Amino acid sequence: FWKIFGVAQLLPLSKLIIAAARFILLSELITKMIGRRSLGTLSALLLFASRLTPIWFFPTSGDELKLLINTFIPWSFEEIVTTRMDFLPYESFNPGFLILGSFMLLAHQAIKQDKMKLAIPVGLLAGLLIYAYPFFWIFGVMFLGGWGLVELIRRRFIWLGHLVIATLANFLVSAPFWWNQLMLKKDGLLTEM
């Protein structure tokens, strides 16, 4: 059973699933912003492919190209053993984008459809961004702050109140990360913060 459904056998499929989910999420986000499915899909395809263009045309080693092929056609090169660290440079396959893309899609939907009840889930997703990639979290905090500033200028104080609650939710969700960083620094295991 474990030879068929074990972690080592599922790793190549997980990369394919994450890459496909990221493409679908990016396509949906661009489609919502542009309003046309064909342009959204084409833009996502071009953006997705452009991140990998240097690897296609100038692979530094044959292993990188094999790694890329293994992403889309699992088990093509069984001698290539991949880990999570192998794909950190390839942001196109970053699983953290699934959280960032969901955050952006939900925020777009909340703004476009004027749904205040979506502000809290947007704040929760913004808090989860710290666990995906700290710079994604910084983007989320800046986005919430900018959105709040716009609502303040527009004098929509009810929306502003919801965004303040969303920002508090963001900080509550990200608080364990910051607590862990503080404890690591206190114990001398983390030199920079």
- Reading the helices and strands in chain order gives HHHHHHHHH
Task: Name the structural class.
Answer: mainly alpha
Helix content: over 70%
Oligomer: single chain
Proportion of residues in β-strands? under 5%
Distance between the termini: 44 Å
How many strands?
0
Radius of gyration: 20 Å
What's the helix count?
Answer: 9
Average pLDDT reading: 77
Largest sheet: none
Q: Rough shape?
A: flat
The low-confidence parts are 83-93
How would you describe the overall organization of this protein?
There is one protein chain. This protein is mainly alpha-helical and 193 residues long. The chain contains 9 helices and no strands. Helix 6 (96-112) runs antiparallel to helix 7, helix 7 packs antiparallel against helix 8 (134-153) and helix 8 runs antiparallel to helix 9 (157-186). The longest helix is centred in the C-terminal third of the chain and has 30 residues, at 157-186. It starts with a helix and ends in a 7-residue tail after the last helix.
Tags for this entry?
193 residues; flat; mainly alpha
Topology of this protein?
Layout: H1 2-5, H2 7-34, H3 37-50, H4 53-57, H5 62-72, H6 96-112, H7 119-132, H8 134-153, H9 157-186
Helix pairs in contact: 2-3, 2-6, 6-7, 7-8, 7-9, 8-9
Short description:
The chain has 9 helices and no strands. The chain is an all-alpha fold. It is flat and about 60 Å long.
